[in-house]
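Sequence in, structure out. First:
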Amino acid sequence: MHVKINASKTRTIIDFRQSGFSELVVLGKYNYNKAEDILENHVHDRMIEICYSDKGSQWFAVEKQRYLVKGGDVFIHYPDELHGSGGYPEEKGCLYWFIIKVPKKTKAQSTTAFLINQLIDMNRRHFRGDGSIKKMLEEIFKVSRSEEESMQMLKIKINLLSQLFLLKLIELANKKTNDTDNERLSKIYELINNSITQNLTIERLANEVNLSESRFKNWFRDLSGFTPLDFVQRKRVEHAMDRIKQNPDINFKDLALELNFSSQQYFTTVLKKFTGKTPSEIKQSTLELNTPGEP
């Protein structure tokens, strides 16, 4: 199949426009082992972008509203929305994105167009996916690479796989969440946010929702997409970035101790892991941003 595939060790992108698809635009995947560059703000004109986080997490910003997308989540950027990563890097992990044109609603619209409009009408931007999402997207990658069938047959297969993918999204977006689990998870989030400078042990967090430590770790990961330690570290990094941006001259050693890191060196290691920058680099970026340009 003559589909342009821009491949590297960390990114794979299929451009369906090269083969004359009328609605499918791009299917991409990255698999990073470290934080990469910031995703700058951009707009997809009359296109929807569907993201699926297989592992890790990613910050997205849509019209100044921030969202944390974690492993197992589906996140949708609707047509003509200004979006990017909100100043955060593309993080360590694996994420898929599928960009599809959004045709106008008509009585004679195609199956793909009908499903896309159904998904948009549901207005569910952020919801949990499942393992079948990854399998479906990988199958589209696999079929796109095939050189054994005619272009017409491959187009039929890819369109059908894409429609099954959209049907699955609609099914998942319709699922009701467990209110009890959501309330308990919100309770844990609140405890972490209010105690970010304290020593947050698994025992303390598990006791908050009356679970054993081993059960709590599995329960928290299933619902949040993170291990408890990873989530706490992310919150501390988030807090550290806010503090540095508010006061670029803050003492990094004092900030590390305040956020309960064992040393300034470990603080720097964790910050670079999640942001791709050291505290000094974040400080420098803040100073450059706050420095007025020449008239």
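Second:
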Amino acid sequence: MYGKEQGFGVRVSNSWFRSKRKERYRAKLSCSNAGFKKKSGANHPRPETRTGCPAMLVIKLVDSKRWRIVEVVFQHNHTVSPEIRRFYKSHKKMILASKKQQESTPVTEVHTIKLYSTSIDAAYNGSQEVEETDSGLPVDTSKHLDLKEGDAHALYNYFCRVKLTNPNFFYLMDLDDEGCLRNVFWADARSRAAFNSFSDAVAIDTTSLRNKCEIPLISFVGLNNHGQPVLLGCGFLGHDSAEYFMWMLKSWLTCMLGRHAQVILTDQSKSLQIAVSKVFPQACHCYCLSYIMLQVPEKLGGLKGYESIKMQLYKAV
């Protein structure tokens, strides 16, 4: 449905099956302009119509009814328009399937479309109320976003609405194998455009995590040529660990098309330090000055002549 709304065709470019049961457990959905046609030896070959478009979506089977998105690329290298959507074969099949469904006749295409759309629609809402899985193993809800019932679905619906009106809006939602929402990242078109001009130094603000606020917000903030902060992306982090920080940083890196800042400013979080060193090994990692100054009373407050030391330190800064 997203391809139909935006105006580009969709095709299954690759599938993986379990050999014994012949069950599809992974699939790659690509834009109909992905790749290029094989060269033909005909005297008058048809002209090339594909553009090698990178837009794609990779999903894998979590259990018998739910699919999980593991990789996504939204950018197209060609123009898309809802006005030409009726010319794509994938959307013609959807229209045909809808007509046949009204006649109460089972249609393969309808089931195929529903199969791939369940990846988010069937996802659980944040941490589950059930403390055990079907296998009897406990669910560690401390590593999921603490959301109320319906919050995750409402958030996903909001992202979809924004994406329809703003194609350059970017978002990723991280689900575990149980379907619980762990992390969320998003950035609007203005943030992505601003990164092209103000990406020299970026501060990763984890104040909400450090203060244990109800909303575990993490922000990527740059500085424009007027000395004003510029928002370059946001996210919700489900757990303060290197693994979760790495997912967030990789999502931001994907959003910015692989470009990273020359200087990364953070607080002294050990988990964040590890994540930055692994995701941005070539960047210069520094501690945020404001965080260092906040630690001055705690670290130096007991020293003799503290007031004089503090005054000299502030002058130096």
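Remark: Residues 151-165 form the longest helix (15 residues).
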